Amino acid sequence: MSKRTLIASTMMGAFALTGSAVVSATTLSDLHNEEAKIHAAAAKSQEKINALFEQSQELLVEYRGVVDETENLKIYNDYLASLVADQQRGIDSLQKQIDSIEDTKQGIVPLMFRMIDSLEKFIELDVPIRLEERKERIEKLRDLMSNSNVTVSEQFRQVLDAYLIETEYGTRIASYQGTLDDNGTEVTVDFFNLGRTAMLALSLDQKHAWVWNNDTRSWEALGDEYLGSVNEAVKMANGLVPADLIKLPIKAAE
After folding, report:
1. What superkingdom does the record give (predicted)?
2. In a domain, 29, yes or no
């Protein structure tokens, strides 16, 4: 090979090597750029993955909360349902009672009239303790029964109250002022009753005393030996002297 040819070949080889180096450098740069893009894309993908993971965790917590709340609401709804059922049973019971009110009234009204009649008869036959007051109470009960503005329950309550008052007359000692008929003469006296066991009267001047005889339905004069005892009895009933043993004319049990 001639020198010119050798030089030409050498120059061509050098140009070839130079071109190959340039091409290699361009390829590596592109690879680095692509790799950088891949890393950047991977980083963004990871960020998205992290965001989605956090969002999924939040959704999981929210889901669990909804599940718990749903369970609580189910329990509460079951509780309310039991209350509603119980209230309905109460409503049904009240409705039955309301439906039976008329039947009850039909039975209780005649009963009250019989109770008032019996009480009036009892007062007529009883010891005349506060007689006028008791008669007035009977009249008020009769007026009450004819008053349309008063409920049946209130009428019945007042009838029972009258019976309770009559019961108390037999369990207490009491004294009050009034008048009695002494052989046609009206005398103001202090009445005294030891329950229904004995009923006495003492004139205001403390010179005369009487005892009620329920068999004859009349007042009978007492001897002077009872004046002191009757006077003491009146004082005890009025709280003027302490309770003590006294001698009183009491009819023996038959």
Report:
1. Bacteria
2. no
Distance CA 133, CA 139 (A): 10
The residues facing 198 across adjacent strands are 194
Structural domain range at position 125: 102-169
In the listed set 169, 187, 215, which residue is the last one of a domain according to the structure?
169
pLDDT digits (tens, 9 = 90+) for 127-136: 999 999 999 9
Residue 132 identity: E
> Which pTM was predicted?
0.59
What total number of domains does the chain contain? 2
Q: Are 171 and 199 within 8 A, CB to CB?
A: no
Flag whether 225 is in a domain: yes
CA dist 251 and 253 (Å) reads 7
Nearest one of 141, 136, 98, 100 to 117, comparing CA atoms: 141
- pLDDT tens, residue by residue, 169-211: 989 999 999 999 888 889 999 999 999 999 999 999 999 999 9
Residue 213 in tokens: 């005889």
